[in-house]
Amino acid sequence: MGSEEESAVKEPLDLIRLSLDERIYVKLRHDRELRGKLHAYDQHLNMILGDVEEIVTSVEIDDETYEEIVRTTRRTVPFLFVRGDGVILVSPPLRTA
Amino acid sequence: MLFFSYFKDLVGREVTVELKNDLAIRGTLHSVDQYLNIKLENTRVVDQDKYPHMLSVWNCFIRGSVVRYVQLPPDGVDVELLHDATRREARGG
């Protein structure tokens, strides 16, 4: 396959390289999450994702009952550039059941 | 430099820049720099009723650090090229 140097996993960014052209899960600041196919990234964690779903989570508190209402807003975008300073973590997609 | 080069190739295409303050601006990509500052032409705000204060703005300069997302044209992405460029860049970093 490639040379030893090219495919060696030495640092965290190399782990992300393994996910190129694969679907990933990205946790962002301000309660946002993305799921999409990783096409490009750099050392700042700027990324280009394809077929992306964004999930925004918001919690409202009812004035009377004080119960927490958790809402999620979803949307899909065909191709998205994400600025790295908003990224918290990157991982393979978390599949629940 | 990867994304700087990528955006330079995208000059002239329509993009939607979503800022960290939730403002979304659609326009033609005029230019970009190493900080990923963006200049847009023919700008219109996506939700004009919610953000009327930019109705008379035709062109704008957006500081790179205030960008959250840039929505790209679906055919503005050569994925194979991006994968190769990323592998090369990641190795050097």
UniProtKB/TrEMBL annotation, chain A:
<dbReference type="GO" id="GO:0005681">
    <property type="term" value="C:spliceosomal complex"/>
</dbReference>
<keyword id="KW-0508">mRNA splicing</keyword>
<dbReference type="InterPro" id="IPR010920">
    <property type="entry name" value="LSM_dom_sf"/>
</dbReference>
<dbReference type="GO" id="GO:0000398">
    <property type="term" value="P:mRNA splicing, via spliceosome"/>
</dbReference>
<protein>
    <submittedName>
        <fullName>Sm LSM3B</fullName>
    </submittedName>
</protein>
<feature type="domain" description="Sm">
    <location>
        <begin position="11"/>
        <end position="96"/>
    </location>
</feature>
<comment type="function">
    <text>Component of LSM protein complexes, which are involved in RNA processing. Component of the cytoplasmic LSM1-LSM7 complex which is involved in mRNA degradation by promoting decapping and leading to accurate 5'-3' mRNA decay. The cytoplasmic LSM1-LSM7 complex regulates developmental gene expression by the decapping of specific development-related transcripts. Component of the nuclear LSM2-LSM8 complex which is involved splicing nuclear mRNAs.</text>
</comment>
<keyword id="KW-0694">RNA-binding</keyword>
<dbReference type="Pfam" id="PF01423">
    <property type="entry name" value="LSM"/>
</dbReference>
<keyword id="KW-0507">mRNA processing</keyword>
<keyword id="KW-0687">Ribonucleoprotein</keyword>
<keyword id="KW-0539">Nucleus</keyword>
<dbReference type="InterPro" id="IPR034105">
    <property type="entry name" value="Lsm3"/>
</dbReference>
<dbReference type="InterPro" id="IPR040002">
    <property type="entry name" value="Sm-like_LSM3"/>
</dbReference>
<keyword id="KW-0747">Spliceosome</keyword>
<dbReference type="InterPro" id="IPR001163">
    <property type="entry name" value="Sm_dom_euk/arc"/>
</dbReference>
<comment type="similarity">
    <text>Belongs to the snRNP Sm proteins family.</text>
</comment>
<dbReference type="GO" id="GO:0120115">
    <property type="term" value="C:Lsm2-8 complex"/>
</dbReference>
<dbReference type="InterPro" id="IPR047575">
    <property type="entry name" value="Sm"/>
</dbReference>
<dbReference type="GO" id="GO:0003723">
    <property type="term" value="F:RNA binding"/>
</dbReference>
UniProtKB/TrEMBL annotation, chain B:
<dbReference type="GO" id="GO:0000398">
    <property type="term" value="P:mRNA splicing, via spliceosome"/>
</dbReference>
<keyword id="KW-0508">mRNA splicing</keyword>
<dbReference type="GO" id="GO:0005688">
    <property type="term" value="C:U6 snRNP"/>
</dbReference>
<dbReference type="GO" id="GO:0003723">
    <property type="term" value="F:RNA binding"/>
</dbReference>
<keyword id="KW-0694">RNA-binding</keyword>
<keyword id="KW-0507">mRNA processing</keyword>
<comment type="function">
    <text>Component of LSM protein complexes, which are involved in RNA processing.</text>
</comment>
<feature type="domain" description="Sm">
    <location>
        <begin position="2"/>
        <end position="76"/>
    </location>
</feature>
<dbReference type="GO" id="GO:0071013">
    <property type="term" value="C:catalytic step 2 spliceosome"/>
</dbReference>
<comment type="similarity">
    <text>Belongs to the snRNP Sm proteins family.</text>
</comment>
<dbReference type="GO" id="GO:1990726">
    <property type="term" value="C:Lsm1-7-Pat1 complex"/>
</dbReference>
<dbReference type="InterPro" id="IPR010920">
    <property type="entry name" value="LSM_dom_sf"/>
</dbReference>
<dbReference type="Pfam" id="PF01423">
    <property type="entry name" value="LSM"/>
</dbReference>
<dbReference type="InterPro" id="IPR016654">
    <property type="entry name" value="U6_snRNA_Lsm2"/>
</dbReference>
<keyword id="KW-0747">Spliceosome</keyword>
<dbReference type="InterPro" id="IPR001163">
    <property type="entry name" value="Sm_dom_euk/arc"/>
</dbReference>
<dbReference type="GO" id="GO:0071011">
    <property type="term" value="C:precatalytic spliceosome"/>
</dbReference>
<dbReference type="GO" id="GO:0000932">
    <property type="term" value="C:P-body"/>
</dbReference>
<keyword id="KW-0687">Ribonucleoprotein</keyword>
<dbReference type="InterPro" id="IPR047575">
    <property type="entry name" value="Sm"/>
</dbReference>
<keyword id="KW-0539">Nucleus</keyword>
<dbReference type="GO" id="GO:0046540">
    <property type="term" value="C:U4/U6 x U5 tri-snRNP complex"/>
</dbReference>
